[in-house]
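SECTION: protein entry
WANTED: fold as tokens:
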Amino acid sequence: MDSLEELAVRLLGHLGPDLRPLDVELLPGQVPGELPLELPLPPGARLLGSAAYRSDGRLLQAVVILDVELSPEAALDFYRRELAARGWSPLPRIRQPGGFVLGTVLASDTFCGGERDSWLSVTVHPQSENRTGVRIHIDLSTAGPCSGAPEPAPYVSHAGERLPPLTLPPGVRLYPGGGGGSDYHWSSHALAETELSAAELEAHLAGQLERHGWERLAASGAGPVVCSAWRVAGDGDWQGILVVAEWPGRNLRSLSVTIESSPVARRGWWAPLA
């Protein structure tokens, strides 16, 4: 074992369920042979390798790292579908409202083995515009989150779920400003530090809304304030307003997105933009 490998093993080491240190093996470009399932890999996936954690020669845990040519959402959908076909059932997702988020925000799903005596998690994060990093943690030593009934999830408005997560271009600093609402209204606000114009930022955000099935109804402005009106994807009569405004003399941009349902939307509150 060379000094670099020894350092990596020491950094990755941790204790097992019996509080004894686990033996760590690094496996570049491969996965442990003792895994209880054949891990599915999306087309074009690049397997960087894995770390195997053993006690007395028995595999207890493993971490697998790969890159895939999918969006984070598509990568999670792939593993929910493929792992379910292999007998691993997903735990219910914790509902999260959308809005302006940091580009490095992680998303994950947890799955239970057939006897609910083992579990694995799939965590994804964007690596670049067309690639996503995937980290798969497999635990054969405990039932973990699969040991009993899941705790009740915190309440999240259905309106908040209709608003997708919105990220900014690389190099743009985001200062989240919060948001909230009710079952018929939701908004998210933030501040961005960038030299990009309001029109450039609006176009970047609009592209994400379109990929989530939103339909542009109207747009207004080409200077320091740009806004657009949208029909929100999904059932019901939901509309949205996206606004990007430049602060005078500063590289700051105010960001706002708001969605409304009937009866407010039926009054046609986007009409002034037409």
Residues 158-273 form a domain with the Protein Transport Mog1p; Chain A fold (CATH 3.40.1000). The chain has two domains: 3-146, 158-273. Residues 220 and 227 are 5 Å apart (CA to CA).
